[in-house]
Write a structure and sequence with these properties.
With about 90 residues, the protein is of the alpha+beta class. The longest helix has 12 residues. It is about 35% helix and about 15% strand. About 10% of the residues are buried. The chain starts with a strand and ends with a helix. The protein has a 3-stranded antiparallel sheet, with helices on one face. It has a domain of about 60 residues: Hypothetical protein rpa1041 (Alpha-Beta Plaits), CATH 3.30.70.1530.
C-alpha cells in the first residue's frame, strides 16, 4: 500500500492527535517517526501519512477554518447586538 506525507510535526503526540481526527472520519492514517529527539525533553519529530486517495479529504479536514471576510470586523462592532429596551419589551 502506498502512503504519502501530508503533514510533519515537531512532536509525535501532535501527529497522533491529527491521526485520531482522521480516524474519526474513517480515514486510515499512520504516524512515522522522522528521527530522534535533539535533546532530552524534546518531542520526537513525526510525519502523518495517508493513502493517496484520501489526500485531499485529509488536507481539508486538517486545514484551518477560513473566516468570512465579507463584513469587516469594525462595522460589526459599531452596532450593539441587543438594546436594553429590547429586553424590557420581552418581559411586558
Amino acid at each position: 500500500m502506498t502512503w504519502i506525507t501530508i503533514r510533519t510535526t515537531d512532536t509525535r503526540w501532535e501527529a497522533e492527535w491529527l491521526q485520531q481526527m482522521l480516524a474519526a472520519h474513517d480515514i486510515p492514517a499512520r504516524v512515522v517517526s522522522r528521527g530522534i529527539a535533539a535533546h532530552f525533553g524534546c518531542g520526537i519529530p513525526a510525519a502523518l501519512q495517508v493513502r493517496p486517495q484520501d489526500r485531499w479529504t485529509s488536507l481539508l479536514l486538517l486545514s484551518p477554518i477560513e473566516e468570512n471576510l465579507e463584513e469587516p470586523l469594525e462595522e460589526s462592532l459599531e452596532e450593539p447586538l441587543d438594546k436594553p429596551s429590547d429586553y424590557r419589551r420581552g418581559l411586558e
